[in-house]
Write a structure and sequence with these properties.
Blueprint lengths: L19 H16 L8 H21 L9 H22 L7 H6 L6 H27 L7 H28 L5 H15 L6 H8 L7 H15 L8 H21 L3 H4 L1
Helix pairs in contact: 1-5, 2-3, 3-5, 3-6, 3-7, 3-9, 6-9, 6-10, 9-10
């Protein structure tokens, strides 16, 4: 996946945008429109990908390999993790080239540069938020009723994932200005990360074999927290600490990298 270069809408001047959040909103809307421009299904492609993956993996692992999980049908077990994971993976991959693919925009006028990779996060966040009612509908059809815990748990986990992504996209996008191979490496690493994260299989299966080492993967605890909330109406507990630690480290590292490298962007581009 490559980031989309974001031209400004006709009649809009960056120098006339007085607030950073206005610019972020502008670029987010523009990115969503460009990504599905010319397609027939439009936004539905965002839902189609995790849904199709869930069906394929459900057939391969549940039907063919006879993998069993407790609780709801295996396809719902997958969707409860695939929706938040898709937000995470797509945000990082789409933001990787957000600086390098918008060189002309960066050189034209000064504006808060960080909104470029952040617009990838917020555009994918919109997709994720719109996928939640779809998951709730599938749960209702399967006989599961989403509880009031969602009202607190969803914003809480979204905040943790937002902090994690903010640091990660700043790191990746900043270094990609100088190391263009990084965006291709990110695609490979995200695929590996997907299989190392308990999405296709329960976290308990990994913990039984690897023990505490499983928490070296911060997405393991976060994805499990999403799954516990969506499927069992359980709010995150102390087990979420690896995601919190990683979010804090990634945010600090991302800010430092961005602040250090930003002044050299134009020369490298």
């Amino acid at each position: 996946m490559r980031a989309v270069s974001i031209p400004l809408p006709t009649g809009i001047n960056l120098s006339q945008v007085t607030h950073t959040w206005e610019l972020l909103l502008l670029l987010t809307v523009r990115e969503v429109k460009l990504r599905y421009e010319g397609t027939i299904l439009g936004f539905l492609w965002t839902l189609a990908k995790p849904l199709l993956l869930a069906l394929v993996f459900s057939f391969a692992l549940s039907t063919v390999l006879r993998l069993k999980v407790e609780g709801p049908p295996y396809v719902l077990f997958l969707l409860a993790a695939l929706f938040p994971w898709t937000w995470f993976q797509s945000s990082i991959q789409f933001s990787a080239a957000s600086f390098s693919s918008n060189a002309a925009l960066l050189k034209k006028v000064y504006f808060p540069r960080f909104v470029l990779p952040f617009s990838a996060i917020t555009s994918q966040l919109i997709h994720f938020v719109l996928s939640i009612p779809i998951l709730a509908l599938f749960l209702l059809i399967a006989g599961y009723r989403p509880g009031p815990e969602w009202l607190l748990g969803v914003p809480l986990l979204m905040a943790i994932q937002l902090l994690m992504l903010a640091g990660a996209v700043l790191l990746v996008a900043s270094f990609n200005v100088f190391l263009r191979d990084l965006e291709h490496l990110v695609e490979v690493l995200m695929t590996l990360w997907f299989y190392l994260t308990p999405i296709l299989y329960p976290l308990s299966m990994v913990k039984d074999r690897l023990g505490p080492i499983v928490y070296l993967n911060p997405m393991a605890s976060l994805i499990q927290a999403w799954r516990d909330l969506f499927l069992y109406d359980q709010l995150p507990g102390f087990d979420i600490w690896p995601a919190l630690v990683f979010a804090a480290i990634a945010l600090v590292a991302g800010i430092i990298a961005f602040k250090t490298l930003e002044e050299h962007f134009e020369d490298a581009l």
